[in-house]
From TrEMBL:
InterPro entries on file: AAA+_ATPase (IPR003593), ABC_transporter-like_ATP-bd (IPR003439), ABC_transporter-like_CS (IPR017871), ABC_transpr_LolD-like (IPR015854), MacB-like_ATP-bd (IPR017911), P-loop_NTPase (IPR027417)
Protein's name in the database: Putative ABC transport system ATP-binding protein
Pfam families with a match to the protein in the record: ABC_tran (PF00005)
Transmembrane regions listed in the UniProt entry: none
Ranges of biased composition (kind: Basic and acidic residues): 251-290, 301-310
Keywords in alphabetical order: ATP-binding, Nucleotide-binding, Transport
One annotated GO molecular function: ATP hydrolysis activity
GO CC entries: membrane protein complex; plasma membrane
Coiled coil spans: none
SMART domains: AAA
Region Disordered, residue ranges: 225-310
Boundaries of every ABC transporter domain copy: 6-245
């Protein structure tokens, strides 16, 4: 029996901020199968990005279990965790995280440096990855010489160059206009269908989530709804804003509607904990995202110096 790409069991994540305990996740159980295309959707403060960082092994849960391709992460050292990320997980973030003074080819090849791969082989694989996303003509261009859509395609090529089993995309169209956003989503659709890589997309936009065959709704640190559609969403090139006709969603028991409560979320009237939470400082998270984009947990400065030294 094939292990799922990702499996989370009763994950929690708590932060201590100025003496206040903030529960970003309050017990999430989730399974992502090999080759699946799922979207995690929720409003700001719902816990969706925290969940994505845990699934990507960029952070450790306060409690619960997480398995990546059947490997339990709790017993792994930081070094072993970085190696697991490098070989099995690709990351695409809203902010691209490309090295400004480095060509597209070198940006894409960078994760392979940490595998000890020779320069010729990693350049060949990076070239193939860029060709796969339609950027064969941009190999030697720097990020400042490319459009936002092209930069995100470079980031997607970098995420896929190591042939991961799962790709995590956190708001991948957030910095793009409608046309470029539609092109990026069309590319993710094709990559999922053609290569079989599992994709987990994090977004707050229903029309973006509709591209996935499964939508996982997160609110207040819990999975509120988990729905699926029987077939892929309409192709974005023919309908950039698809209106998916979702089947009736299944409500999870822990989010059952309470009498007299909010009809949508099941909360008692006036109870909106996500509005009352202290704001979390994401500077450390941004640092982790940058390192993960390059195939390690290090800083951008360290990554550039290592690449230039090879």
């Amino acid at each position: 029996m094939t292990d799922p790409a990702l499996e989370a069991i009763d994950l929690t994540r708590r932060y201590q901020l100025e003496g206040v305990s903030v529960e970003a996740l309050r017990g999430v159980t989730l399974r992502i199968d090999q080759g699946e295309f799922a979207a995690i959707i929720g409003p700001s403060g719902s816990g969706k990005s925290t969940l994505m960082h845990l699934l990507g092994c960029l952070d450790r849960p306060s409690s619960g279990q997480l398995r990546v391709n059947g490997v339990e992460m709790s017993g792994l050292s930081d070094t072993e965790l970085a190696e697991l990320r490098n070989r099995t997980i690709g990351f695409v973030f809203q902010s691209f995280h490309l090295l400004a003074r480095t060509s597209a080819l070198e940006n894409v090849a960078l994760p392979l440096v940490y595998r000890g791969m020779g320069k010729a082989e990693r350049r060949e694989r990076a070239r193939a990855a860029l060709e796969a996303v339609g950027l064969a003509h941009r190999l030697d261009h720097r990020p400042s010489q490319m459009s936002g859509g092209e930069q995100q395609r470079v980031a997607i090529a970098r995420a896929l160059v190591g042939e991961p089993t799962v790709l995590l995309a956190d708001e991948p169209t957030g910095n793009l206009d409608t046309r470029n956003g539609a092109e990026v989503m069309a590319m993710l659709d094709r990559l999922n269908s053609d290569s079989g890589v599992a994709i987990v997309l994090v977004t707050h936009e229903p029309e973006i989530a509709a591209h996935a065959r499964r939508q996982i709704h997160v609110r207040d640190g819990l999975i509120e709804l988990d729905t699926s559609t029987p077939s892929p969403a309409p192709h974005p090139e023919t309908n950039p804003h698809p209106k998916s006709a979702h089947p009736k969603p299944t409500t999870h028991p822990e989010r059952a509607h309470s009498e007299g409560g909010d009809a949508e979320s099941g909360r008692p009237e006036g109870d909106h904990p996500e509005r009352d939470r202290p704001e979390v400082d994401h500077s450390e998270r941004d640092h982790s995202e940058r390192g993960a984009s390059f195939g390690t947990g290090g800083s951008e400065t360290g990554d550039r110096s290592r690449e230039e030294g090879r």
